[in-house]
Specification:
Strand content: under 5%
Shape: globular
Strand order of the largest sheet: 1-2
Structural class: mainly alpha
Helix content: 55-70%
Protein name: Phage holin family protein
Number of strands: 2
Number of helices: 5
Radius of gyration: 17 Å
Oligomer: single chain
InterPro entries: Phage_holin_4_2
Keywords: Membrane, Transmembrane, Transmembrane helix
Distance between the termini: 32 Å
Organism: Desulfuromonas soudanensis
Largest sheet: 2 strands, antiparallel
Length: 131
Amino acid sequence: MKGLLLRWLILTLAIMAAAYVFDGIEVSGFFSAFFAAAILGILNAFFRPILFLLTLPINILTLGLFTFVLNALMLMMASGVISGFQVRGFWTAVVGSLVISVVSWLLSSFINDQGHVEYVELRKGRGDRWE
């Protein structure tokens, strides 16, 4: 449960980072981003697999690039539900979803399954090898 809440907060921070970077994405406050992250998580959990299967042929033809379009659609759908979260334009949604994905992936890579912050400590061993 702790890991779920931590990942939810990470997605919230990623949405706020995308709103800071792009003028076309607006967030009225932390709680708007918090609820947008919740709606985005629900949409990604339930609707994204169905849409991915329905668009699988075009996704294969575009070598997976159509996934960016699906992510943008999910972001635009979330902005339609939350009043304090607004995405203007399709291309803003595409680039914004890319930023949200990268920031969320980077921050989530430090969280293990139990919700604890995890890091790898490397030491230089024998013969210029890192262990």
